[in-house]
tryptophan synthase
Amino acid sequence: MTTKILLDESHLPARWYNVRADLCTQPPPPLHPGDRSPIRPQDMAPLFPMEFITQGIISTDRFVVIPEEVRDVYRLWRPTPLIRAHRLERALRTPARIYFKYEGISPTGSHKPNTAVAQAYYNARQGVRRLTTETGNGQWGSALAFACAQFGLECDVWMVKASYDQKPARRSMMELYGARVHASPSEETSAGAKALAEDPYSPGSVGIAISEAVEASAAPDTRYALGSVLNAVLLHQTIIGEEALEQMAGDPPDLIVGVVGGGSTFAGLAFPFLREKWSGRFDPRFLAVEPAACPSLTRGRYAYDYFDAAGFTPLFKMHTLGHDFVPGPIHAGGLRYHGMSPLLSHMYELGHFEATAKSQRECFDAGVLFARTEGIVPAPEPNHALAAVVEEARRCAETGEAEVILTALCGHGHFDMRAYERHLSGRLEDPEAPPEQIESALTHLP
Amino acid sequence: MTTKILLDESHLPARWYNVRADLCTQPPPPLHPGDRSPIRPQDMAPLFPMEFITQGIISTDRFVVIPEEVRDVYRLWRPTPLIRAHRLERALRTPARIYFKYEGISPTGSHKPNTAVAQAYYNARQGVRRLTTETGNGQWGSALAFACAQFGLECDVWMVKASYDQKPARRSMMELYGARVHASPSEETSAGAKALAEDPYSPGSVGIAISEAVEASAAPDTRYALGSVLNAVLLHQTIIGEEALEQMAGDPPDLIVGVVGGGSTFAGLAFPFLREKWSGRFDPRFLAVEPAACPSLTRGRYAYDYFDAAGFTPLFKMHTLGHDFVPGPIHAGGLRYHGMSPLLSHMYELGHFEATAKSQRECFDAGVLFARTEGIVPAPEPNHALAAVVEEARRCAETGEAEVILTALCGHGHFDMRAYERHLSGRLEDPEAPPEQIESALTHLP
C-alpha cells in the first residue's frame, strides 16, 4: 500500500503556469490611488524587478521558464512528496482517498520559498543588493531571508511587533539566515514613527509593516518583496500544482481543497488542475477555505481597495473586507488579511471555484486529528483546508462515494505550538467577523 | 547536478542489521547492581517487551525482520532523502563531496521515531496498554508520544523540569499526540518526591526522570521505553545506514561522521557500512563526535556504571564520566549523558571507529554555515557532526583530496532557536568538562 508518491529531480518542473493566458477576460487593472488611472508597468519598477512585473502584468504566455539558478535552489527540497493519508482515512472511516501535497519540508517549513527564491534571483540578476519586506507570523520573512542568503542579498524584515515579541523563534530563524529583523512599528521609517506617535504601545499590523517595508525600499539598490496576492507570486506557486498533476496521474482528483489568505497556496495547487479541466482531461470541484474571522471571499465585497491599511498602495479590484478591517485574534497569522488576490477574486467572480469559511476551533480539531493520524503537525493556516477535507470525507462516508480529495499541506506548525496548547486546554478563541464590523469597514472603501 | 537521492517505498528496508552477529567478542553482560551477577533476559521483562529484550541481548541473527506494521508507520516519512551538500561544499571551497542523510523530516523531527515506533509496536502486540519514559529536551518524548498514538497506547512522559519550563513547545507537541507530560521531579513517584524533598526548586535531570519513569512503569499493563543506549535501540536505527548504503552506492564514502550522545544515530548510520567494510566492499574511516562538555568516549573510563544518576539500574560496562557527573549547560540536551552505549563502547575498545570532541561554539558556527548554505536549520546535536565534517572538508581543501564524506543530520533545530539566538548574539556558553570534575565523578563508580 503506497503512502508517498515521490518524484526525483529529473521531474522538477521546468516551467511555471500563467493562468491568465487561458482566461477569456483579464482581471481589471490596478489603479493609481490618486487619479485612478491604470498603473503602468514602469510605475512598479521602483518596487519590483522588471522580470517580476512582466510576469505579473504584461506576459500572457501560458508558460514561464524557471531559471536554472532558481531550479538549483528548488532542488534543496523539491519536488515535494505527495502523501496518501491512509491513517486519516481510516480514522474517518471514509471511502474517500485523501492526498496531500506536503510543502512543509522546505527549509523554512512552508510553500513561501517557492516565490521567495524566484524574487531574490530576479532582483540579484538586476543588480539589486538589498530586499525589504514585512512579515506577520514570520513564515514569509524567513522564506525571504533564506532566499536572500542563497543569492548574497541583504534582507531587512519588518515584523509585526506582536509577533516579534511572541515568536522569538521565527525572528531568530531570520537572523540565522543573515537578515535584519525590525519590530514594526519602528522608528526607522516615517510610517513607523507616525504609528508610534499615535500609540507608543502599538502591537503593529501587517498593514503598517507593509508601509514600513515599502518606504525602506526607496533606498539605493533596494527593492521590496511581497509573499502573496500578486499575480507573479501565484505564478511561482504553480510549481506545486504542476508536480501534483504528475503525482496524481494514476488517481485523478474529484475535489481540490486549499486554504486562502492572500491566495497563493490555493492558486499554486489549483491553477494547473484548472488548465487540465479546461482541456477536458478531468472535471474536479475546486474549493477555497478561508477563516470565519476574516472571510474576504464569502462575505467581502468585490471592489477596488488598498493592499495596505494606511492606503499608500495602488488600488486593486479584489474581494475585500475593507482595508481598515481588523480581524479577530486567530493564530493563522497568514490569513489575517482584509483582501484576496485580485486574480483569484476575478476567477471567483467567473465561477471557477467555490469558497467556504471555517471557524478556528473546527480547524484546530482537524489539525489535532491529522497530527495524531499522519504524524505531521500542520500550521494553523492549512488546518483550514484540513477542516474542509475532513468535512468532505465524512460526507463521502455517509454517501459511500469513494471520491479522491487532494489538498496542499502548505506548512508545518512547529512554531505554532502555543496555539495548539491553547486549543488542547480549551482556551482557544473562536472569533467570527461581526457583520456590523464588515459593514463599517466597507463604508471606507476608496 | 543531482542534489537529492530519493528512494521510493519499494526500497524501504525489510530488515534491521544486528551488528553483534559480526563481532568476534560480545560486549560484557549487564550486571545486577547488588550481587554483580549477570542480568538474565527475564529480569528485564518487567521493563521491556520480550521481543525487544530478545533483539538486544539474546539474538545473534545478523538480520531482524521489520514487522509490516512498523514499516507501515515508517512509510509516513521513510526512506529519508540523502542530500548532497553542494552549497556547503562551495562555501568551503573544498573538493570533498559531502552527503547528509536527513532524518529531520520525520513527524517529530529526528531519528528517534525509528525506534519509538518499533518499541510501541512490540509493546502493543504483547498487550501492554501504557508506556512511560523520560525526556530531556523533548525529542525522544515526542517521538514516543507519536508512536503511541499510532498503536493506541497511553503515554506518560517525565520531562526534566528545566526543559518543561523552557521548552513549552515540545511539551505541547507531546500533548498534541495525546501523551501526558509530567515535570520531573514530580510528586507522582517516590523518586520524584525524594528529589523534591531534598530540593523543592530542583531543575531536574535526565537521571531523576529515568528513575521516575522506571518507577511508574511498575503499574499494571505498563512498560518503560528508552530512546538510546540499548542494543535493540541501536538495531532499530540501522535502517538509516541500510538506506544510506543503497543511496551511496554510486559514490562510496571515504569517511562516515556521526554525533554520539547515547550513540544511536552514529550506530544507526555506521553499522551497515561497517558490515560492508568487513566484507571488503570498501574501507571508509568512521568518526564519532561528542561534546567537549560531556566527553564520555574521549575522556571517560571504560567501566561498569549505572545508567541513571540515582544508581537504580543494572550496571553496564561502558565509557562513562561517572553516573553523578553533571555536564555543563550545553544546548544539545540529547548529548548531556554521562555514559555511552555499551555496545558502541565495546566496539570503540575494539578499534572500529575514532572519536573526537567539539566545543559548543564550534558546533554552532558549523550549524549557522549549514543553515545559510543548505537551508535546513540543524538541531544542536547534529551540529557536532557538522563541525567535524566542516573540519574534514577544510582539510580536503588544503590537501586537494576529493574525499566523499557522509553524515547523518539527525534532526532539525526548529525547537532550538533560542540557542541559535544566543550564539548569534555572542552569548553562547562554551563549557568544557573540567578534569577535576571528571576525576571526582569517576571515584564514585560502583
About this structure: Chain A is about 40% helix and 15% strand.
